[in-house]
Design goal:
alpha/beta; six-stranded parallel beta sheet; TIM Barrel; single chain; Urease, subunit C, domain 1; 23 strands; nine-stranded mixed beta sheet
């Protein structure tokens, strides 16, 4: 099929403009015409679809994803395309799958293995990684970033120290090579090792190597009591080097921090007025999700995997860590201290034990303390476990979502781990449409769609996506605004959404009538405008 005509739609073009009735013609992977109903009636298309009043919008763009490993999965990953997503930004929070030099292979694989499923790692450079993922194919389009953790581990391991000048130069060389291979920017995750050990000087030295329009996306050093300090640090990096700044999953975590998103956004507004191109993304849930090991203080992770495992068997190290969790002095991102053991739920483990249970419940079942339950789960799974933490409040989520420079990002952890991943993986975009447009009216429908499409495309420099206009890529979604609904829950997190009728990626139908079609129609996008075109391959995996 090279042409498709959609008749009788309610068009939301992605710009924030009001809906209008329209017929839309897609030809060879691009939008060929957008016209008043009936105008294209004489066009001979390979397929004609009567929209019957369904909403037609640009395919949604996930501003923050961890789906780097999806091309290596067998079959089709339906988590994003089932909710209308046609493009996702990967390589976030400092984690990317390259560079992967041979002499640092074990450290990088151990670090990434806490987040990603088992992978072949048969590449060394970012260019080689992209070649492998290109060969395997993409369910949806991918916008890759290169991760600061991976750069640091590739050069100096997981050590708690500043880099020597030669090491900074080597990290910068890896970053330049990644940009040359097609990375859109740099990401950091400043609550995780080894990024937590970095200074503003180190981050700015690396970000200075970004080209014009390059993005620095950061998981802030603090999202709880230190939120304002974290925002100020991120602004300092971007302002020093003049790059775009994307604040990842803006939130206020822990009761003591609730309400601080407003002054945080005021800091970003002031930076915007000074000329800093700063945006933020948000997911519409009151729980976050990350690696279970993040419950431990930063010093616990100094030296990498084996050093962390040794400390988990060292009574003096455990006594110190347990005391620091209980005190919560605000000097690090203390999920337990900020939210409490009953609000920390195990999402996935390598051995699939205790998934869906909170740590206080695990402790009760094992007849031990919650801290010892945490230690036991980490040891028995060789650190490979994730969690969801019920840390935020709805009022903050709404305030962040309403901000004019807010984008929508799932922050979904990599598919393929099993367990009970955060439902945002399958439900973020439909939840915005159902809960925050239809039910709570936090946003109008045109505004919500703009936040999920054209505005994200502009930030990441992929402006041939995110709009419905002649010449743009044929990434579109047909959905029923009255029926669209996220169905994923914390205990049933992989239930697909309702009301998404059809999704096309590059003109290729990837989702229709509640099922994936089995075609990988996506592509790895490249910085700078690129021509639209057809894609698509059957699902074989890697």
């Amino acid at each position: 099929m090279t042409s498709l005509l959609i008749r009788g739609s309610r068009l939301f073009d992605g710009t924030g403009a009001a809906e209008r009735p329209a017929d839309v013609l897609l030809v060879e992977g691009a939008i060929a015409a957008v016209a008043a109903p009936g105008t294209l009636s004489r066009v001979a298309a390979d397929r004609v679809i009567d929209a019957d009043g369904l909403a037609l919008a640009p395919g949604f763009i996930d501003a923050h994803s961890h789906a780097d490993s999806v091309p290596f999965l067998p079959g089709i990953d339906a988590s994003k395309i089932s909710q209308g997503v046609t493009t996702e930004v990967v390589g976030n929070c400092g984690f990317s799958l390259a560079p992967h030099p041979a002499d640092r292979s074990s450290e990088i694989q151990e670090m990434c293995g806490r987040l990603f499923p088992s992978l072949p790692y048969d590449w060394n450079t970012t260019a080689e990684l992209y070649e492998r993922t290109d060969q395997a194919g993409y369910t949806v389009n991918t916008v890759p970033l290169v991760g600061h953790h991976t750069l640091r581990a590739a050069v100096m391991g997981i050590d708690d120290r500043a880099p020597y000048p030669a090491e900074t130069a080597e990290m910068s060389a890896h970053l330049r090579a990644a940009i040359s291979a097609g990375a859109f920017g740099l990401s950091s995750g400043l609550i995780y090792a080894p990024g937590v050990f970095a200074t503003v000087d180190e981050l700015a030295a690396l970000a200075a190597g970004l080209p014009a329009g390059g993005v620095y996306a950061t998981h802030l050093r603090g999202e709880g009591p230190r939120l304002l300090d974290g925002v100020a640090e991120a602004i300092a990096v971007a302002e020093r080097v003049g790059c775009r700044l994307q604040v990842s999953h803006l939130k206020a975590a822990g009761k003591d921090a609730w309400g601080s998103v407003v002054p945080a956004m005021e800091l970003m507004d002031l930076a915007w007025k000074r000329g800093v191109d700063v945006h933020h993304d948000v997911y519409p849930y009151e729980a976050n999700s990350t690696m279970l090991m993040s419950c431990l203080p930063p010093w616990f992770q100094d030296g990498g995997h084996e050093a962390t495992v040794r400390r988990l068997r060292d009574p003096s190290a455990l006594d110190r860590a347990e005391g620091e969790l209980a005190r919560d002095d605000g000097t690090w991102e203390n999920w337990v201290g900020g939210s409490g053991w009953p609000n920390v739920m195990i999402a996935s483990t390598a051995n699939h034990e205790f998934e869906g249970l909170t740590l206080d419940r695990v402790a009760a079942l094992r007849g031990t303390t919650p801290f010892q339950a945490l230690v036991d789960v980490l040891v028995s799974n060789d650190l490979r476990a994730t969690m969801s933490v019920f840390a935020m409040c709805e009022e903050d989520v709404e305030a962040v979502l309403r901000h004019p420079r807010a984008l929508v990002g799932s922050d979904g952890l990599p598919p393929g781990q099993g367990g009970k991943p955060h439902p945002r993986l399958y439900g973020t975009f439909t939840r915005v449409l159902a809960r925050h447009v239809r039910e709570k009216q936090t946003l109008s429908l045109p505004e919500a769609i703009a936040k999920m499409t054209s505005r994200t495309a502009k930030v990441f420099g992929i402006e041939e996506r995110g709009v419905v206009r002649p010449g743009a890529a044929a990434d579109v979604v047909l959905f029923d605004p009255d029926r669209v609904q996220d169905k994923a829950t914390f205990l049933e997190p992989t239930r697909v959404s309702e009301g998404i009728e059809m999704v096309l990626v590059g003109g290729v139908v990837g989702w229709e009538r509640g099922e994936a079609t089995g075609v990988r129609g996506g592509r790895r996008l490249r910085p700078g405008a690129e021509p639209a075109g057809t894609g698509g391959r059957t699902a074989t995996g890697g």
